[in-house]
C-alpha cells in the first residue's frame, strides 16, 4: 500500500528523540496530570506549520527551543492532530527541539495513560488512591494509536525514535517503564521523581510506564547476555506476587529459547511482566515492560483451573516473541499488523510446545486457532490477512481472528512446507537485516525465499492478499482421485466473482498411516488428478497443516471414520471440523457428520473431544427451536459422551497428566449440559459440600462444569449461589468462571437480573462479553439477551463505548449465534440509524453468520429429524 493511500502526518518533520516529564499527578477527583515533552526533530525543509498527534490532551504552549513560540495551536478532533503554526517559517535543520507543555487525564477507558480499579486483599501503601470503593493502579496501553492520549507525539509505527521518561509519584509507590531506573530524586509533598534509562529506537505504540503499590518475584535468564544473566520479574499489586511464579518460570526459559532460535540476543537489559487489573486485550508487548490482564499472567497452583496454566504459558510466550518480531523489527504500517500478530501467535505455540511437549499444543492449535480463523474467513464479510488501512484509527477492527489466527495458520502451513528449521533460518536473517527498523511482508518473503531456495512470494501471495480460503473437493475413480479447488463460503452460495483466486495448496497426501511427513506435492491449478492412489486408505491435508477444508465423497468420509485409528490427532480434528463446516455450507450433510461422529465414542484425546463438543454444540444451537430435533440431538450427545464420562470419573489422580484433567472437565461439562443424570446429581452433591465449607469438594478445574450445572438445574437459588460466589471468590480466574456459569440461566427473569448485574459496577468492563457469550450460546435465552440489549441500548452502549475494541467484541460474540433471517433483519434494522464507527465491520460479520446459520437450518432440518428417528435417537 503506497503512502499516498494512507492518511499520515506530513513527511517534512521526523522525530528523533523524546524527553517526557510527567508531574503534578492528581490521584483522586479528576485524575489529571501535567507534562512536558521535548521532541528532537529533523526538519527536512522550511515549514510554517508542524503537525503531530494528540487526543484528549490540552497543549498549553509550544516553542522551537532557542527560537520561536507557536503563534497558534489548533486541534482537529476527527484526525486527532494538533497543528503548531509559526509567524515566520521554521528553517530546515537536522536537529531542532520542539518543547510542548500539556495536561491530560489518567482515564478509566483502558486506553492511553489510564487507571485500573481493584480490591486489595492486603493493606495497601498509604498513598494508594481510591476510585469509589476500589483502589487504583496506573499503566499505559498505547497500541495501536493511543500514545497520543498520553503525550503529544508523532504516533505512527514507522516514525521511530528514542525516549527518556521521568515521572513524579508518591514515595511509597513503584514506577516502571521500558528501561531500568536511572535515578530517583525526592520531590515536593512526599513525592519522588523516577527517571528511566534511554530506550532503543522504537515506535511510539511500544512505549510504556506504570506505577502503583507493586511488588515482584524475580528470576534470571540462564543464558548470559553481554556476560551476565538478565533479571526477569513479574510485578503485581501487593498481595498477589506469589501467583506470578508460573509466568516467571516460563518467561526466563522462553527469552533464552527465542534468543537462540532467532540468533539475536534479547536486546534490553531487563524483562518486566506486569499484571494490570483492567485490560481491554489479553496482553500488550511494550518493549521490556509487558502488560497483561490478570488471568493471562497469574496462576495459583491451589486455586486456579489448570486450563489457565496453558493460557499463561502461551500468552507469556506470544508477548515475548514480539520483543523481536514487532518491537526490534516493526511492520511499516498497520495494514501489515498480521506480520506482528500472526508470527507471534505461531512462534508462541512453538515455544509452549518446546516447554511442554506433553500438552500436545499443535492439536489444540488446530481446534482453536485454525477453526476460529476458518469460521470467520468463510464469510463474505471477512478481510484479507493484509488489509488496506487508510487511517490508523481504523486499525482496531483488524485485531481479529484473521490477523492473529489465519496469519499464524498460514505461517504454520508455510513452515511445514519449508521445514521449521529452514523457516526459522529465514526469520533470523530477516530480523538481522531489519533490526531497529521497519519492514514489510515482502521483506519477510525475500528472506524466506533466500533461506529455502523457493519462490515464497509466489505461493503465499494469494493467502495473504486475497480474502477467504479454498475447499478441496475430491472425486474418486479406480486407482486415482481428482481434486478441485474453489472458494469456501459458509453461506454456500459462491458466485463466479467470489471464486477468482487460485491458491497454492499443499496436498499432504497420506497413504501409509505410519509414514511421517506426507507427500509434499501441491495443487497450483484449478483441478488435477492424483494417480496411483491406494484406495484402501488415504487422507489429504496430513495433520491439518494446510489452511483449507476437504470435501470427500460420503462413502470415503464414512470409511475414514472407520479407519480413525490410523489417523493422527490433528487428522481426526480436521475430519470432524471439515464435515461440520461443509454441512453448514450445504456441501455436506448433518446426517453425514452425525454418522461420522457416532464412531468416536471410544475416543480418548482431549483435543478431538473438544472439536466434537464444539461441532455438536453448534448443531444443537442451530436446531434448538425445533423441539423434536433438539431432543434427538440431546440424546445423541448423551449416548456419545456417557461412556467416556463414566469411565474418566471425578477424581484427579496424583501426578495425572494435564490433558487427562482437561478431558475430564470437558466431558463432565458436555454430559451435564446434555442432561446426564449421574453427572448432574454428583455436581449438585459436590457443590453442597463446597458451600458448607469443604473447598476440596470441587476441584478448581471442575468449577466451571459444576457451577454451570448448578445454575442450569438450580433455578433462582442456583443462580444466586453462583452470583454470591462471584462476589466472594479470591481466585484470579474465579470471576471469569462464575460469569460463564451464570450464562446458563434458563428463565427470562434471571437473564434480565444477570444482565442488570453485568452492566452494574460489579463487573469490570473488560469482562462484559464473558457472561454474554455464554448467554448467546444458551438457546433457551438468547432472544432475551438481544431484547435486553435493544431495550437498554443507551445504557449498554455507554458502558461498552469506553473502548471501541470492547463494543466490537461484545456485539460480534453476543449476536452471531442466531439462526433466523428474521432476527438478522431485526439486528440490521436496529443499527441502521446508529453511528457504528468502530464496530461496523463486526456487524456485517454478524449478519453473514446469522444468515449462513438460517440457510443451514432451513436446508437440513427435515433430514436431521429423519436420521435421528431412523437411528433411535428421537
List the helices and strands and how they pair.
Blueprint (H helix, E strand, L loop, with lengths): L12 E11 L8 E12 L3 E7 L4 E7 L7 E5 L4 E10 L2 E13 L6 E7 L11 E2 L2 E8 L5 H4 L11 E9 L3 E4 L3 E6 L4 E6 L12 E4 L1 E7 L10 E7 L7 H17 L9 E6 L6 E2 L4 E5 L13 H16 L6 E3 L5 H19 L5 H17 L23 H18 L1 H15 L2 E3 L1 H12 L3 H10 L4 E8 L2 E8 L17 E2 L15 E2 L3 E5 L17 E3 L2 H9 L6 H17 L4 H9 L7 H17 L4 H22 L9 H16 L3 H15 L11 H11 L1 H14 L5 H9 L5 H11 L9 H9 L5 H10 L1 H8 L3 H12 L5 H11 L8 H31 L4
Parallel strand pairs: 1-11, 17-18, 18-20, 21-22, 23-28
Antiparallel strand pairs: 1-2, 2-7, 3-6, 4-7, 5-6, 8-10, 9-10, 10-15, 11-14, 12-15, 13-14, 16-17, 19-20, 23-24, 24-27, 25-26
Question: How would you describe the overall organization of this protein?
Answer:
This protein has 874 residues and is of the alpha+beta class. Among the domains are: 1-212, Immunoglobulin-like (Sandwich), CATH 2.60.40; 329-465, Neutral Protease, domain 2; 469-588, Immunoglobulin-like, CATH 2.60.40. Helix content is 41%, strand content 20%. It contains 26 helices and 28 strands. Strands 4-7-2-1-11-14-13 form a seven-stranded mixed beta sheet, with no helix packed on it. Strands 8, 9, 10, 12 and 15 form a five-stranded antiparallel beta sheet that branches. A hairpin with an 8-residue loop joins strand 1 (13-23) and strand 2. Helix 5 crosses helix 6, helix 13 (606-622) runs parallel beside helix 15 and helix 19 packs parallel to helix 21 (768-776). The model has no long low-confidence stretch (mean pLDDT 96).
Amino acid at each position: 500500500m503506497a503512502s499516498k493511500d494512507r492518511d499520515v502526518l506530513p513527511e517534512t518533520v521526523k522525530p528523533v528523540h523524546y524527553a517526557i516529564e510527567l508531574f503534578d499527578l492528581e490521584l483522586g477527583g479528576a485524575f489529571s496530570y501535567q507534562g512536558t515533552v521535548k521532541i528532537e526533530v529533523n526538519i527536512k525543509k522550511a515549514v510554517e506549520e508542524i503537525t503531530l498527534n494528540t487526543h484528549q490532551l490540552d497543549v498549553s504552549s509550544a516553542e522551537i527551543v532557542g527560537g520561536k513560540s507557536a503563534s497558534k495551536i489548533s486541534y482537529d478532533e476527527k484526525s486527532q492532530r494538533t497543528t503548531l503554526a509559526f509567524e515566520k517559517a521554521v528553517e530546515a535543520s537536522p536537529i531542532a527541539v520542539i518543547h510542548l507543555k500539556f495536561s491530560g487525564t489518567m482515564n478509566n477507558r483502558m486506553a492511553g495513560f489510564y487507571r485500573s480499579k481493584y480490591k486489595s486483599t492486603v493493606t495497601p501503601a498509604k498513598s494508594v488512591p481510591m476510585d469509589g470503593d476500589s483502589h487504583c493502579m496506573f499503566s499505559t496501553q498505547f497500541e495501536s494509536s493511543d500514545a497520543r492520549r498520553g503525550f503529544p507525539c508523532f504516533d505512527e509505527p514507522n516514525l521511530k525514535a528514542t525516549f527518556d521518561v521521568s515521572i513524579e509519584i508518591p514515595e511509597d509507590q513503584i514506577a516502571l517503564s521500558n528501561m531500568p531506573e536511572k535515578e530517583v530524586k525526592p520531590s515536593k509533598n512526599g513525592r519522588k521523581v523516577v527517571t528511566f534509562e534511554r530506550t532503543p529506537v522504537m515506535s511510539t505504540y511500544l512505549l510504556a510506564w506504570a506505577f502503583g503499590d507493586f511488588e515482584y518475584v524475580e528470576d534470571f535468564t540462564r543464558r548470559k547476555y553481554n556476560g551476565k544473566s538478565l533479571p526477569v520479574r513479574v510485578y503485581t499489586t501487593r498481595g498477589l506476587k506469589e501467583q506470578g511464579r508460573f509466568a516467571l518460570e516460563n518467561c526466563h526459559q522462553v527469552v533464552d529459547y527465542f534468543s537462540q532460535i532467532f540468533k539475536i540476543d534479547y536486546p534490553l537489559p531487563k524483562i518486566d511482566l506486569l499484571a494490570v487489573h483492567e485490560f481491554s486485550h489479553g496482553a500488550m508487548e511494550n518493549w521490556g515492560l509487558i502488560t497483561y490482564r490478570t488471568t493471562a499472567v497469574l496462576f495459583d497452583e491451589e486455586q486456579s483451573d489448570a486450563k489457565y496454566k496453558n493460557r499463561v504459558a502461551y500468552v507469556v510466550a506470544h508477548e515475548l516473541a514480539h520483543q523481536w518480531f514487532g518491537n526490534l523489527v516493526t511492520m511499516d504500517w498497520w495494514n501489515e499488523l498480521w506480520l506482528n500478530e500472526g508470527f507471534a501467535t505461531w512462534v508462541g505455540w512453538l515455544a509452549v510446545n518446546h516447554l511442554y511437549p506433553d500438552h500436545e499444543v499443535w492439536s489444540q492449535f488446530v481446534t482453536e486457532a485454525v477453526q476460529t480463523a476458518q469460521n470467520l474467513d468463510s464469510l463474505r464479510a471477512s478481510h484479507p490477512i493484509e488489509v488496506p488501512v487508510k487511517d490508523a484509527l481504523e486499525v482496531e477492527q483488524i485485531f481479529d481472528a484473521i490477523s492473529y489466527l489465519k496469519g499464524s495458520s498460514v505461517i504454520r502451513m508455510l513452515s511445514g512446507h519449508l521445514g521449521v528449521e529452514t523457516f526459522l533460518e529465514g526469520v533470523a536473517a530477516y530480523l538481522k537485516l531489519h533490526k531497529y527498523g521497519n519492514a514489510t511482508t515482502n521483506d519477510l518473503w525475500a528472506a524466506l525465499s533466500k533461506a529455502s531456495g523457493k519462490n515464497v512470494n509466489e505461493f503465499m501471495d494469494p493467502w495473504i492478499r486475497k480474502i477467504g480460503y479454498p475447499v478441496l473437493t475430491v472425486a474418486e475413480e479406480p486407482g486415482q482421485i481428482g481434486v478441485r479447488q474453489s472458494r469456501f463460503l459458509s453461506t454456500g452460495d459462491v458466485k463466479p466473482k467470489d471464486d477468482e483466486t487460485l491458491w497454492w495448496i499443499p496436498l499432504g497426501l497420506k497413504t501409509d498411516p505410519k509414514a511421517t511427513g506426507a507427500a509434499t506435492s501441491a495443487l497450483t491449478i484449478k483441478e488435477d488428478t492424483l494417480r496411483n492412489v491406494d484406495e484402501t486408505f488415504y487422507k489429504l491435508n496430513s495433520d491439518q497443516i494446510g489452511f483449507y477444508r476437504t470435501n470427500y465423497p460420503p462413502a470415503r468420509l464414512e470409511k475414514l471414520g472407520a479407519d480413525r485409528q490410523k489417523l493422527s490427532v490433528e487428522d481426526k480434528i480436521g475430519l470432524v471440523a471439515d464435515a461440520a463446516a461443509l454441512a453448514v455450507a450445504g456441501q455436506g450433510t448433518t446426517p453425514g457428520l452425525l454418522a461420522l461422529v457416532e464412531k468416536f465414542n471410544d475416543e480418548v484425546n482431549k483435543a478431538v473431544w473438544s472439536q466434537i463438543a464444539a461441532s455438536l454444540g453448534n448443531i444443537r444451537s442451530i436446531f434448538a427451536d425445533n423441539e423434536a430435533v433438539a431432543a434427538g440431538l440431546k440424546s445423541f450427545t448423551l449416548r456419545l459422551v456417557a461412556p467416556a464420562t463414566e469411565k474418566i470419573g471425578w477424581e484427579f489422580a496424583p501426578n495425572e497428566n494435564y490433558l487427562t484433567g482437561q478431558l475430564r472437565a470437558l466431558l463432565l461439562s458436555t454430559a451435564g449440559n446434555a442432561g446426564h443424570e449421574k453427572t448432574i446429581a454428583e455436581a449438585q452433591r459436590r457443590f453442597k459440600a463446597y458451600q458448607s465449607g469443604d473447598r476440596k469438594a470441587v476441584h478448581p478445574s471442575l468449577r466451571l462444569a459444576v457451577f454451570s450445572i448448578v445454575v442450569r438445574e438450580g433455578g433462582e437459588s442456583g443462580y444466586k449461589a453462583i452470583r454470591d460466589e462471584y462476589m466472594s471468590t479470591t481466585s484470579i480466574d474465579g470471576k471469569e468462571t462464575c460469569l460463564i456459569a451464570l450464562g446458563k440461566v434458563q428463565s427470562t427473569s434471571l437473564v434480565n437480573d444477570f444482565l442488570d448485574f453485568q452492566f452494574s459496577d460489579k463487573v469490570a468492563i473488560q469482562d462484559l462479553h464473558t457472561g454474554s457469550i455464554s448467554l448467546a450460546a444458551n438457546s433457551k435465552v438468547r432472544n432475551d439477551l438481544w431484547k435486553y440489549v435493544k431495550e437498554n441500548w443507551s445504557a449498554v452502549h455507554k458502558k461498552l463505548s469506553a473502548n471501541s475494541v470492547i463494543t466490537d467484541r461484545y456485539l460480534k460474540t453476543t449476536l452471531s449465534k442466531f439462526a433466523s433471517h428474521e432476527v438478522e433483519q431485526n439486528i440490521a434494522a436496529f443499527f441502521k440509524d446508529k453511528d457504528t464507527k468502530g464496530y461496523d465491520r463486526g456487524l456485517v460479520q454478524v449478519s453473514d453468520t446469522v444468515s449462513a446459520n438460517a440457510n443451514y437450518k432451513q436446508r437440513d432440518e427435515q433430514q436431521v429429524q429423519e436420521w435421528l428417528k431412523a437411528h433411535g435417537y428421537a
